């Protein structure tokens, strides 16, 4: 993974158009069949080279909805985010 959308997502749609690499799909295209938006980890670049912080999380109105997760090998990731923060429960925007 890279950043991950959690189950408190309200499917508002604010994040999807902010992603510079079209890594986000809406609830109707969620490959896990969940009623939330989804980030494809093999597409997400954590906005490296695009934004100072992940644009999806900046746009999201739901506190703590988007969290850090482990990046996929070969994908850009933010070196300042430590491995222990990539535990699937640390919000990208605090
Ligand atoms: S962190 Fe950036 S690249 Fe990754 S899903 Fe969010 S907006 Fe897209
Ligand atoms: S902006 Fe946040 S709450 Fe809205 S669809 Fe995206 S992840 Fe879900």
Model description:
The protein has one helix spanning 55-59, and strands at 3-5, 24-25, 38-39, 66-68. With 94 residues, it is low in regular secondary structure. The chain has a single domain, classed as Alpha-Beta Plaits. The strands form two sheets. It has a two-stranded antiparallel ribbon. The longest helix is centred in the middle third of the chain and has 5 residues, at 55-59. The two termini are 19 Å apart. The relative contact order is 0.27. The chain binds iron/sulfur cluster (2 copies). One iron/sulfur cluster is lined by residues 2-3, 18-21, 23-24, 39, 44-47, 54-56. This is CDP-diacylglycerol--serine O-phosphatidyltransferase (Phosphatidylserine synthase). Residues 1-29, 35-71 form the 4Fe-4S ferredoxin-type domain. Its EC number is 2.7.8.8.
